[in-house]
Amino acid sequence: MKSVIDRYGKAKEEQQVATNPNSELKFWQREAASLRQQLHNLQENHRQLMGEDLSGLNVKELQSLENQLETSLRGVRSKKDHLLIDEIHELNRKASLFHQENMELYNKINQIRQENTELYKKIYQAEGPSEVNRESPTPYNFAVVENTDVPVQLGLSTLPQQNSIEPSTAPKLG
After folding, report:
1. 33-66: buried (b, 16+ CB within 10 Å) or exposed (e) per residue?
2. Are 101 and 126 contacting, i.e. CB atoms less than 8 angstroms apart?
3. Residues 78-134: pLDDT tens digits?
4. What count of other Cβ atoms lies within 10 Å of the Cβ of residue 170?
5. Which helix (H) or strand (E) holds 141?
6. Which of 38, 83, 134, 163 is 20 to 30 Å apart from 22, CA to CA?
7. Kind and range of the H or E element at 112?
8. Which pTM does this prediction carry?
């Protein structure tokens, strides 16, 4: 009810201000005084919330101030907990994506390892393990090392055009 009366009073003053320049000056002086008082009250309240200038407060006011601070602290902790939970969920999601990507890469490595084993068997079943196919239409040879504890190793090298040179061993990758 009081706020309605205050609003009515302000609206009536504003209407009068528009008609009289003297009234306008008084209105703005009252408005400035009101804003100064609000600023003073806010500064005092801020000092009290910061634990300063508490000497003029009685027990009931101190208890009210303590309740305000506890309510504010609960709000801050709740917000912090919410942010931390969101961050944990995001990190778990990223970890899951990394795990999935690692599994896909592991499967690709196993597939390549199987393909290399099949190629190794095809080459050395036809030629024997000590021969390199020099009659191949491509001037390259490759070597496959099959060891389950060591990463897949492939190598390419060019063969000399002369047949009299010893077969070179291919460099091993990995």
Report:
1. eeeeeeeeeeeeeeebeeeeeeeeeeeeeeeebe
2. no
3. 999 999 999 999 999 999 999 999 999 999 999 999 999 999 998 888 765 454 455
4. 19
5. strand 140-141
6. 38
7. helix 59-127
8. 0.46
